[in-house]
Design a protein that fits this description.
Layout lengths: L3 E4 L10 E6 L5 H5 L5 E5 L17 E3 L3 H12 L1 H10 L7 E5 L1 H16 L6 H19 L4 E14 L2 E6 L5 H4 L6 E11 L5 E8 L10 E2 L8 E2 L3 H9 L8 E4 L3 H12 L26 H13 L13 H19 L5 H14 L9 H4 L16 H8 L3 H13 L4 H13 L54 H13 L26 H11 L5 H19 L1
Parallel strand pairs: 2-6, 2-8, 3-4, 3-5, 5-6
Antiparallel strand pairs: 1-12, 6-7, 8-9, 8-10, 9-11
Helix pairs in contact: 2-3, 4-5, 9-10, 10-11, 13-14, 13-16, 14-15
């Protein structure tokens, strides 16, 4: 097969508009569609009277009540013979444009079909992945048609922080962020009240073609020929983009060395001889730890994720693999992303987290005896260094029943002061009676040293001063208690031969908030906080810091 190099030119820039048009209801999206030449509209909103605004223009359309209907329309329009036949039946010279009105309503059609097929009432993890692929397929399929293609979509407000909110496509999941990059023009319909020359009030409609702080998703690939604000008319937009555009013809040249290159590729694809030691990865290759036991650091990261949604890490977590831990983390991050985008509230997100954890056999009822009565996550926990102070305190959290269980084990093993102290304080502060310490067995008699009798006095020498009698047993000086963090770090160094990773070197999703210590719940916002205030903060502490600074500024100005 001949290999060719090409130069960009006219063939790479067809005179077609491939666009997404976002906007609020009744902002002129559908009216704009009616200006496209020889258009057929895929009307997904027919039950809501979506085409009422252009009913007087006699525009051809197809009612879309299922994904099958839309795929059939795409097939007809993608075949030259079928497309010409459809145009003839509609009394048109040809079909030049197609619109899908609206994408967000079509997404709801897909979701309803999926739930009916799977006989379930709510979307689960696999369903969201399926929905994303279905939306990508239909958008890419229509964009590939040899026609002008336009998608309409409603907008929604997305809150970035206390001071910032933006307009984004009202779609669920990642497809909303991907959509502008799948077309050549991402536009937004706008309207405002205006006064004509006679002083009469009227509504002025327009198209915004470049993004700003309020609508960052907008933009186009017209190389600066399209103004930021333009009239909502296809002919005007097309003229601005293509009139006077002179491009060289797309050129190509066959590469004479293609046979040698293809032979080299074939050699690369040939199976390589097995190395002598198949267990050893090649130098520099990342270690595949998917099947290895989960690390303590990963367990602590998962612990924070569980707590964010009011759940507890199951006691069996220490027996999981690193691969399972990553699957759980990905699911929780996916739900949090959907929650931040405004698609679900916290209660709904919590339900989705629980469903995902149940599907991965990674959830226990927070009120079950398995959680509230047993000592920490390791079934072999016995109060020794097998579980560090940090491990136990992390497991206990603020649970008094867990604190009591851990104290009983520590007491039975002559517990560590750096652990029993915080546990006793937790119970005392909660007015919970401390568990009884086991009675120490008395030392057997006869083991205490008996002083030797003084020799008989021949003459009465001056008696030496008798030493103070020693107590039967002198308790050793108590060592100063180490903080739980110091104790944990010492164990890491001494027993595991490791060093604590500084917070700033951790992955952003694991870096703790510098105020409350919990893992960041929004790394992008945490980076903003670090840039503004010099601290890595979670959402709650960022808002608190922001409010405090505003209050201080107001007080100063007053």
């Amino acid at each position: 097969m001949a290999f060719q190099f090409k130069r960009t030119g006219d063939a790479d820039y067809p005179r077609l508009i491939k666009a997404v048009v976002q906007g609020a209801p009744k902002s002129g999206k559908t009216t704009f569609l009616s200006t496209f030449p020889n258009i057929v509209i895929a009307d997904v909103e027919h039950e809501q009277g979506g085409l009422m605004s252009i009913a007087h223009k006699n525009v051809p359309y197809v009612e879309i009540d299922s994904s099958q209907t839309l795929r059939t329309l795409k097939t007809i329009l993608g075949d030259d013979t079928l497309r010409a036949k459809a145009a003839n039946q509609l009394g048109m010279d040809k079909i030049e444009s197609v619109a899908l009105d609206t994408l967000d309503e079509y997404q709801r059609v897909l979701k309803a079909e999926r739930m009916a097929k799977t006989n379930q009432r709510e979307f689960k993890r696999d369903d969201w992945g399926w929905l994303l692929e279905e939306m990508r397929a239909i958008i890419n399929g229509f964009v590939a048609l040899p026609l002008n293609v336009v998608f309409t979509v409603h907008t929604k407000m997305q809150v970035i922080d206390e001071d910032t909110s933006i307009m984004v496509p009202a779609l669920q999941g990642a497809i909303g962020d991907e959509l502008p990059g799948m077309v050549g023009f991402a536009l937004e319909t706008t309207k405002r009240k205006a006064i004509d020359a006679k002083g009469n009030s009227f509504t002025e409609y327009s198209i915004q073609a470049e993004g700003d702080e309020k609508s960052p998703h907008l933009g186009n690939r017209a190389g600066g020929r399209l103004p930021r604000i333009i009239e909502p008319d296809f002919a005007i937009i097309h003229k601005a983009v293509f009139e006077g555009l002179k491009l060289a013809q797309t050129a190509s040249v066959s590469f004479e060395g293609s046979d040698e290159a293809e032979a080299a590729v074939a050699a690369e694809d040939a199976p390589a001889p097995a190395p002598e030691d198949t267990s050893a990865p090649p130098p520099g290759a990342p270690k595949d730890d998917t099947a290895e036991p989960i690390s303590k650091g990963a367990l602590q990261h998962l612990q924070g994720m569980y707590e964010e949604f009011g759940q507890v890490l199951p006691p069996s977590a220490s027996s999981w693999t690193m691969g399972k831990g990553r699957d759980i983390a990905r699911w929780v991050v996916a739900v949090k992303t959907d929650m931040r985008s405004g698609n679900v509230d916290k209660d709904k997100a919590t339900e989705q987290v629980i469903e995902g954890l149940q599907g991965m056999d990674a959830w226990v009822d927070p009120d079950s005896p398995e959680v509230t009565e047993q000592p920490p996550n390791d079934p072999e926990y016995n109060g020794s260094v097998k579980n560090t102070v940090a491990d136990v305190l992390s497991w206990v959290g603020q649970s008094t029943s867990r604190a009591s269980a851990a104290l009983r084990v520590e007491y039975a093993n002559k517990g560590r002061a750096s652990l029993t102290g915080p546990l006793e304080k937790l119970l005392t502060d909660a007015s919970v009676e401390l568990p009884e310490r086991p009675q120490e067995e008395p030392e057997p008699e006869g083991e205490a040293e008996t002083p030797e009798p003084a020799p008989a006095a021949q003459e009465a020498p001056t008696p030496a001063p008798e030493p103070d009698p020693e107590p039967e047993s002198t308790p050793p000086e108590p060592e100063p208690e180490a903080a739980p963090e110091a104790d944990a770090e010492a164990l890491i160094k001494e027993q595991l031969g490791g060093e604590r990773i500084p917070d700033e070197e951790l992955p952003v999703e694991q870096r703790p908030c510098q105020v409350c210590g919990k893992p960041s719940d929004d790394p992008e916002l945490s980076e903003l906080a670090e840039a503004r205030y010099g601290q890595w903060l979670c959402v709650e502490d960022y808002l608190a810091e922001n409010a405090a600074r505003k209050k201080a500024a107001a007080t100063t100005s007053a």
